[in-house]
Each structure stands twice: as structure tokens, then as C-alpha cells.
Amino acid sequence: MRKAFLQLHVAVFLAGFTGILGRLITLNEGMIVWYRLLFTALTMWILFASRKKFQKISFADILKIGGVGVIAMLHWITFYGSIKYSNVSVALVCFSAIGFFTALFEPLILRRRINWMELLLGLVTILGIYIIFHFDSQYKTGIVIGIISAMLASLFPIFNREFLKRINVETMLTWQQTGGFIVLSVLLPFYLQRFPNENGFVPGWENIGWLLVLAWGCSVIAFQFSANALKRLSAFTVNLSYNLEPIYGILLAFAVKHENKFLSKWFYVGFAIILAVLIIHIILLVKQESKLKEHADSGIS
Fold first, then answer.
1. What are the pLDDT digits (tens) for 20-31?
2. In this predicted model, what pLDDT tens digit does every residue of 205-233 receive, in sequence order?
3. Residue 217 has what DSSP assignment?
4. Which are the contacts of 94, defined by CB distance < 8 A and separation ≥ 6?
5. Which of 23, 41, 125, 120 is nearest to 80 (CA)?
6. Alpha-carbon torsion 293, 108, 98, 266, what sign?
7. Torsion over CA: 126, 129, 131, 136 (sign)
8. Residue 156 near residue 71 (C-beta atoms within 8 A)
9. From the centroid of its chain, how far is CA 148?
10. pLDDT grade, residue 135 (50/70/90)?
11. Kind plus residue range of the DSSP H or E element containing 298
């Protein structure tokens, strides 16, 4: 359990860089995601094939896993779209709504009872976002897109947890990135007609450097750690722990882009509420783990 938590939080730390990279890369959101998928999928095929990590799976499983990759691709496009229409800090706070959507969707998809405590914590997170939305209406479009992004992001860890019961991490991740890349490649010409990229199709060297950091650090490495954690932890625990991502990302946005100069006090009020939710959830998890350990010890004795 401790190893799973460590892997999860390393993945969260790496994911915290994605927001500021979305601002540093001067391509539009569609192009960012297309290159991210291209570099990530190529790296995974080469790396995992050389290490003989691929597992033979059925064509039906490839389609299902690829479909989840499409959901992930749509999440990234809306996430970077939220950054472009608002800023890194607002987009990352909206991402915290992932806990609410997971508490709602996980019982429905997996046919389990609703955990009312998880749902309540998720609703409090939504309250924090609403406070920012209500008093900082200049970010309205970015907030709406960011909430859609969080809803999409809540889905693929739920499906991934089921895949990982019979398919290894490397196989699952590679087919997901490949599926997302193929579908986006088909849709990209239509997307660029509606949302043209002002800086052209081929990125400059600086953009390529940041894209490689995004693909290798925030995708290849972070995804493996996150998927490994999913084997031991619930999808809700993984998603709610990702509320640390805004903390890392916002601090980077403050340091690199000085976004703190453009945020009102209501942003900090909403963010404080979301941070309190995370702390409460960690306390509950620690208590739950202690009870399980005590129960196991009493069983042994």
C-alpha cells in the first residue's frame, strides 16, 4: 500500500508540470495533444517492445482500450483549451472536480454502492470551483471547458482499473496512446479548420523540447506509476490524490508566469476549500488503513 501511494504521488508531481507546459508550448490545444500522443506512443512502442513487455490481447480488447485512449485524448484537449481560455491556475483548480465525477461515475459504471462520504467531498470541491466562477466571471469559458475536462478525466482511471486486472500496464498504456493518436489524426484537419494554429503545423525547436518533456516525463513515466498505483488503490483515491496536481501546477504558474498578479481573493478562497477536502480525505484514508491493519493483526493473534 505504501509503495502504491509513493508511486501515485510521484506521478502526481510529474503531472503538475503539464499545466505550465501547456502555457510554454505556443501551439494550440489540438496540436499539443497530437504531438504529445505521437511522441508518447512512439516511445512506448520502442521502449516496451525492446523490453518485451507487450502482452498479446484480443482485437476486442484493443478497441476497448483504444476507446478509453480517445476519452483521455479529449480530456487533454479540453484541459489545454481551458488553459488557453483562462490560465494555468484556473484550469488546474477546475481539474479538482475530478473527485466529484469519480464518486458519481464509479458506482454507476462498476455497479457498486455510492460512497456518500466520497460524494460529499466531491461536492465540497465543486463548491470551491463555484466560488471562483461566481466572483471571477472573466474566466467563464475556461472554467466550463475545465469542468468538462475533469469529467472526462474521471472516466479512464475507472476503466483502467478493470483492464489492469488481466492486462499489464505497458500493453494497456501503449494501445491507449495509439488509439487516441489515430482518432485525433483523423479529426485534426477538421479541428484545425475550426481552430487554426497560428504558428503553423511544424513546431520550433523550443516547442519540440517542451513537447518531449511533456511526453516522456508527464506521460511515459507518470502513466506507469499511476497505473501501478491503480492496482492497489481505488479510482477515487487516485483521482482525489491528483488534487495535489493543482498545488504543484499553480506554484509553477506563479513562479514562471506570475499568474498570482491576475487572480482575485476569491480564487484563493475557493482553492483553500479544495485543499481542505484533500487534507480531510488523507486523514480518512490513514484512519481506514490503521483500522485494516489492526483488524489484520488481531486476526493473526
1. 888 889 899 999
2. 899 999 999 998 888 888 778 777 777 77
3. I
4. 82, 129, 142, 143, 146, 147, 149, 150
5. 23
6. negative
7. negative
8. yes
9. 12
10. low
11. helix 265-300
Look at the block and give the residue holding cell 516525463.
217
Centre a 10 Å sphere on the Cβ of residue 197 and count the other Cβ atoms it contains: 18
User: CB–CB of 229/7 below 8 Å?
Assistant: yes
What global pTM score does this model have? Answer: 0.83
Q: What is the pLDDT of residue 301?
A: 46
Cell numbers that stand for 234 in this block:
481505488
Phi-psi domain of 52 (left: phi exceeds 0; alpha: psi -120 through 50; beta: other): left
The SS3 call for residue 87 is coil
Residues 164 and 111: their CA atoms lie apart, in Å, by: 18
Give the distance between the most distant pair of CA atoms in the chain.
69
Cα–Cα distance for residue pair 43/35, rounded to 1 Å: 12
Residue from 164, 177, 151 nearest 70 by CA? 177
Q: How far apart are CA 129 and CA 179, in angstroms?
A: 32
Spatial separation of the C-alpha atoms in residues 153 and 159, rounded to whole Å: 11
The grid coordinates of residue 162 equal 478493470
| Distance from C-alpha of 225 to C-alpha of 14, rounded to nearest angstrom | 10
- Angstrom distance (rounded) from CA 134 to CA 141: 13
Cα gap 209→121, rounded to integer Å: 38
Q: What is the pLDDT of residues 4-47, one digit of tens each?
A: 777 787 888 788 788 888 888 989 999 999 999 999 999 999 99
Contact 7, 228 (CB under 8 A): yes
